[in-house]
Amino acid sequence: MKKVIILGGGGFIGGHLAKKLKLNGFFVRIADIKQHEYLKQEDICHEFIECDLADPVAVEKVIFEDCYELYQLAADMGGAGYIFTGLNDANIMSNSALINLNVAKEAVKKKVQKIFYSSSACIYPAHNQLDSNNPNCEEGSAYPANPDSEYGWEKLFSERLFLAYASNYNLNVRIARFHNVFGPYGTWNGGKEKAPAAMARKAAETPNGGSFEVWGDGQQTRSFLYIEDCLEAIERFMKSDFNGPLNIGSEEMITINQLAQMAIDISGKNISIHNIDGQEFIDKYGFRCPLGVRGRKSDNNLYRSTIGWEVSAPLIVGMQKTFTWINEQVNNGQ
Questions:
Q1: For residue 122, how far is the Cα from the chain centroid?
Q2: What is the pLDDT of residues 109-160, one digit of tens each?
Q3: Whole-angstrom distance, CA of residue 250 vs CA of residue 221
Q4: pLDDT value of position 84
Q5: Angle (nearest 5°) at CA 315 between 310 and 317
Q6: What confidence score (pLDDT) does residue 334 get?
């Protein structure tokens, strides 16, 4: 039984990944600062170590000598309300950077056979994403660097960290830039949820004939990748000889208002959208509306040419599954 370690397995993507690898016959060890909120420990791993991976002593204990694959997904992160307000920048940068410094060093020391690092589309320059209809997120466009958030800057630094360890210490690394991964069994309230979960929750909670808020004018664009497609992309990437960085995302772009309307249509309710930004937002929340870049979608040309696979399921399929699960949580008072 090959042994894998998933750092951040108590999170959304990490939990789904752990469950899949366990079902596929791997011995799975998870390390995270918290248990998974929705998936049972026995369903996703053989061992769970609750620890702070920013502590080098913890990382030393977590990573064992005969590790076949290590997946580094642990990070201090969340949705726009967490990343783009500026209120959490110091923690976001320091916690995540410490984790990656510890992991890179220990992975070399323990001779980990292959390591996956989850970077983010937030590393792409803000000036390439001003046009909501034509954002440029091709992998080579990352430089000159100008991410729109401190979260993006830390991710870019950590990409270079792992590539440096690959160059100097032969660390066998795969670096993926995730683009807005969503699905069931993830954060759906509390401020750290991503847009698909937020829209599904609002549609589930809002009574028929009511209205819910969408931050900004709603014309900002994004692409969203359903979790099952994300896991397939990770598996194929790990089996390849390509190191990356490589986008893992969908090329189906949609405005945030369209995403909100999709959630409303799935709910079957008559709900209106109230766009809020500017002074109205400041008066209500006490800080500027955290919108991020104007437009962003994954460019999958490099993935297609190197791995030979692409996403086929449309966004609405994943949104239907996600709404069904979140609607259950809302109705059950979770």
A1: 10
A2: 999 999 999 999 999 999 999 999 999 999 999 999 999 889 999 999 999 9
A3: 13
A4: 65
A5: 105
A6: 62
Active site residue 151: yes
Total residues belonging to the chain: 334
Check: CB of residue 281 under 8 Å from CB of residue 288.
yes
* Parallel, antiparallel or unpaired: strands 47-50 and 173-178: unpaired
Q: Which of 124, 151, 165, 226 is catalytic?
A: 151
In whole angstroms, give the CA distance from residue 103 to residue 53.
8
Query: At the topology level of CATH, where does 3-181+225-248 sit?
Result: Rossmann fold (3.40.50)
pLDDT digits (tens, 9 = 90+) for 196-216: 999 999 999 999 999 999 999
Instruction: Count other Cβ atoms within 10 Å, centred on residue 312.
Output: 8
Name the strand (E) or helix (H) holding 120: strand 115-120
Alpha carbon distance 22, 17 (integer Å): 9
The sign one gets for the Cα dihedral 224, 317, 43, 191 is: positive
For residue 192, the model assigns a pLDDT of 78
Do the Cβ atoms of 265 and 325 come closer than 8 Å?
no
The tokens of 198 are what?
A: 């937020």
Domain 186-223+253-299+313-331: what homologous superfamily?
A: UDP-galactose 4-epimerase, domain 1 (3.90.25.10)
Residue 168, classified by CB atoms within 10 Å of its CB into exposed (0-12), middle (13-18) or buried (19+), is exposed
Q: Is the peptide bond before 144 cis (omega within 30 degrees of 0)?
A: yes
Distances (CA, A) of 323 to 188, 220, 255, 258, 262: 10, 22, 18, 15, 10
CA distance 49 to 297: 35
- Domain residue limits, the chain: 3-181+225-248, 186-223+253-299+313-331
